[in-house]
Amino acid sequence: MYLGKSLETSANEGVLVKQQSIPTSLQTIRELTPHFLKYGEFELSFSPNTISKYAHNLKMTAELIGDLSVDQITIIHITDLKMKMVARGCGEARVGSIIFSMKSFLKFCKDYLELQVMDYKKIRSPKLRKREVLFLSNEEIKQFVDSIRLMRKYDGKKHSTGYRMDGLRFRTLVEVLLGTGMRISEALSLDRDGIDFQKHEAKIIGKGSKERTVFFSERSIEWVILYLKERKDTLMPLFITNLHTRLNKTDVSKLFQRHVKRSGITKKLTPHILRHTMATNLLFNGCPISHVKEILGHDRLETTCRYYLGLDKSKAKEAHGKFLNY
User: Fold this and answer.
1) What single DSSP character describes residue 111?
2) Mean pLDDT of 37-46
3) What pLDDT was estimated at residue 313?
């Protein structure tokens, strides 16, 4: 006896093709997870990061509630999963991510594999409280970038011996994040030949594996040009390590921690907060929120509004007095 639809993949075609069915004995969370991940990759075009997140979330689910057969999972197990995650000290966003992964997994089992599983529509993600969007002021931006050491030590004649390439690389990355609003994964995926230096643009594959165009500010493109001019290699990745490998998010996280401490800024500061900083700077300077949506690469205007409308309380009060007239 076999499950309904096949999940064998064709690497050449990049799609799922019907070749071999899955035995009904393979119905537990762990056993079906690889097939769900293949489905997500080839049918739904999940990015590698998304695939990794789903894999981790489903592994954690099986650890917390047991590697149950999917037809045995009930709403009580979902509630138990939430309770155990909270007991572990997981925050709302983490709990929400796990629950969403489980809901997507059960939807796959029911709608694609046609298995007898619970109604996934009954699963409710925890309601997330709206958080204040953190961003840097112009003064704090200057304080942060000034903490980045660019020049090497001076020689006996008080002449600089050149740029510190690690400092120049990090300053350029910070300027690119502030000048484009890219996510850190998008910035690190840039190749030098992917940038149109005349138009100050680059085409990238963003969230959800969707292609979009990002725009560089004059200031950020000047830092990129300077950084590449000082590079002595011909490697394609825009941001590389001293070992000539592409810079990754772990490397960047350590760099941010080091420079935040050096700068004396007490706010939380991550690459994503620079994205928020860019967006709020645009809004405070009068950029229409519909343009901010396109610059950030949001699919829906609702997402942009949820994050950024109402950030400047003083301007909101000023607008209230100016425009409200019965």
Assistant:
1) I
2) 91
3) 59
The whole-model pTM stands at 0.67
Architecture of the 9-122 domain: Orthogonal Bundle (1.10)
Start-to-end Cα distance in the chain: 71
Pairwise CA distance, residues 174 & 155, whole Å: 28
How many other C-beta atoms lie within 10 A of the C-beta of residue 218?
A: 8
Q: What is the rounded CA–CA span in Å between residue 298 and residue 46? A: 17
Domain boundaries, the chain: 9-122, 138-323
For 142, the enclosing helix (H) or strand (E) is helix 138-146
Give the side-chain half-sphere CA count within 13 A for 105: 31
CA distances for 153 relative to 288, 298, 317, angstroms? 45, 44, 50
Q: Which CATH superfamily is 138-323 part of? A: Intergrase catalytic core (1.10.443.10)
- Model confidence at 20: pLDDT above 50: no
